[in-house]
Amino acid sequence: METYDAIVIGAGHNGLVCAAYLLKAGYSVLLLEKRSVPGGAATTEEVMPNEAPGFKFNLCAIDHEFIFMGPVIEELELDKYGLEYLWCDPSVFCPHPDGKYFLAHKSLEKTCAEIARYSKRDAQKYREFINFWSHLMGAITPMFNAAPQHFLEIATKYNYERLYDVFATIGSRKKVFDFVRTLVTSPEDLLNEWFDTEIVKAPLARLAAEIGAPPSQKGTTSGLMMLAMRHNQGIARPRGGTGALTDALVKLVKSKGGVILTEQMVKEVIVDDRVAVGVRVAGGKEYRANKGVISNIDAQRLFLELVEPAALDSADPELRNRIERRIVNNNETILKIDCALSEVPRFEAYHHRDEYLIGTVLIADSMQQVEEAHTLANMGQIPDSNPSMYLDVPTVLDPSMAPEGKHTMWIEFFAPYQIAGAEGTGLQGTGWTDELKNKVADRVIDKLADYAPNIKNSIIARRVESPAELGERLGAYKGNYYHLDMTLDQMIFLRPLPEIANYKTPIKGLYLTGAGTHPGGSISGIPGRNCAKVFLRSQKSFLGML
Ligand SMILES: Cc1cc2nc3c(=O)[nH]c(=O)nc-3n(C[C@H](O)[C@H](O)[C@H](O)COP(=O)(O)OP(=O)(O)OC[C@H]3O[C@@H](n4cnc5c(N)ncnc54)[C@H](O)[C@@H]3O)c2cc1C
Question: I need a labelling partner for 375 at 20 to 30 A (CA). Which of 41, 79, 343, 506 fits?
């Protein structure tokens, strides 16, 4: 039987990052991936080889921000394995129905000057708002890069600059109370408190809602730091697409002797006397791990599908019930549209400039529209009567992703996983069919055409993936690409549950990483790195006790 020091279930980017750190420390590692390619929600694939040969699509993640909050790229020297980032500046273009538009540059000053064309007050408030969130980001960065309950390690990461950020955020009695209020209120309430104009509120609300919740939801204001991130470290894309990050990690893992086996669906974690000793894959083959099994899939999938109930119950009799009932996955996920284009969408009524397409284009007419996009999806309704969307035309920044002179377009449209009233029909009983997903995609493109009238004639080929298909591809419950919701009650030392928030589980040698662990979903590699550190520490018995 093949034996490794560690086995990683799933080769998403976090599983790969975790494996890379273990390999660098001298451990042997096997990654088992259910799909035919590694990367999970971080792949770039030529998915329409017949209709659109040579066009490469980011099937999920495209815009990278969080990865720059941690040291993964530098520590793993990913540039040596071919990773190169292209920076997006401007970073956001949001046209409004009345002919106005929001354009965020990397420079805060330039962005404020754009806003001042419509409201001098909002321009000034925007500067203060971004400064607040920038300090808050600085203040919490040390917490991101350590196990969330490892207080000693977190404390040592606070240098002068980070302490200054803490002081700027909560350095007086009033600031502390305001800070608490800011965390527990909703993005909508906070934006109404700060700003007058929709031209600022709507794009901020739309980006905040990327967390997977409507702007009215209390406790989700952390999403409002998205624009501050774009002004600070910036937003970038790997040359060649998000898959280039995965490719670099795969090269690194293989160069260190790591083994990645694809089309290997893990069916069971083998537990012997409360210790994880290996896994069994579909078809029955077993692999042994003598130091640990690490799960890149979340606690619900791991414990409810892959671990024998008796094995978990004997380690912690209460955990099964808590995992089943306390961890929350709402009903909102993504209907994804990828198009091969003969030319870029042109925003003629907004004095089109190709620079609008370097970063993200948001169709967010108002906070109300963003609210409906999420609330309806949560309730099982498709918010397609007036679609809001997030789209990118990555080939403007990186022409290597399409044949010469041609382009690709990436559209993310929030949609319900389970359609209300359609239970038991369509794919996986969700109500989604090919006909329905294409009808919804047509409406999304119709809406975009209100702004960029040339779009319909420029589509060479299109691929639409319904929420049910996305869920099936990723293997995530309800297509949740963050593995579990990113609300305050499931973050930091509560993610996924307090007793398993430090990447360890009650089953000895069984570790958790991935988007379902601290600090959560998105492209960051931080859960992978943090988990690797905990694993390595556990190998040294004294420190492992900490
Ligand atoms: C449409 C879309 C757009 C997005 N856009 C962005 C973006 O622009 N920027 C950003 O930062 N984030 C974005 N995200 C979120 C981000 O992609 C994910 O949060 C992140 O990639 C999760 O990485 P992970 O490694 O933790 O998990 P995953 O990528 O989910 O990896 C888990 C891996 O485990 C495999 N697996 C599952 N079950 C098994 C099993 N039983 N046996 C073996 N293997 C298994 C899966 O196939 C997968 O490869 C987007 C997500 C989606 C869906």
Answer: 41
pTM: 0.96
Instruction: Set out the domains of the chain in order of their start, with CATH numbers.
Output: 3-40+245-328+485-544 (3.50.50.60), 105-234 (no CATH), 330-478 (3.90.660)
Contact 16/42 with Cβ under 8 angstroms? Answer: no
Helix axes 173-184 and 160-170, enclosed angle (nearest 10)? 80
Structure tokens at 24: 């660098």
H/E stretch holding 271 reads strand 266-272
Q: What share of the chain is helix, strand, coil (3-state, %, to 5)?
A: 45, 20, 35
Contacts 24+ apart (CB under 8 A), 417-421: 417/331, 417/332, 417/333, 417/467, 417/468, 417/471, 417/478, 417/479, 418/331, 418/380, 418/478, 419/380, 419/381, 419/382, 420/379, 420/380, 420/381, 421/380
pLDDT tens-digit readout, 504-531: 999 999 999 999 999 999 999 999 999 9
pLDDT tens track for 189-230: 999 999 999 999 999 999 999 999 999 999 999 999 999 999
**Distance (Å, rounded) from C-alpha 507 to C-alpha 274?**
5
- 460: its two tokens: 């060479």
Contact 228, 137 (CB under 8 A): yes
* Burial environment of residue 283 by CB neighbours within 10 A (0 to 12, 13 to 18, 19 or more): exposed
Query: Contact at 8 Å (CB) between 238 and 245?
Result: yes
Q: What spacing in Å lies between the alpha carbon of 43 and ligand 1's midpoint?
A: 9
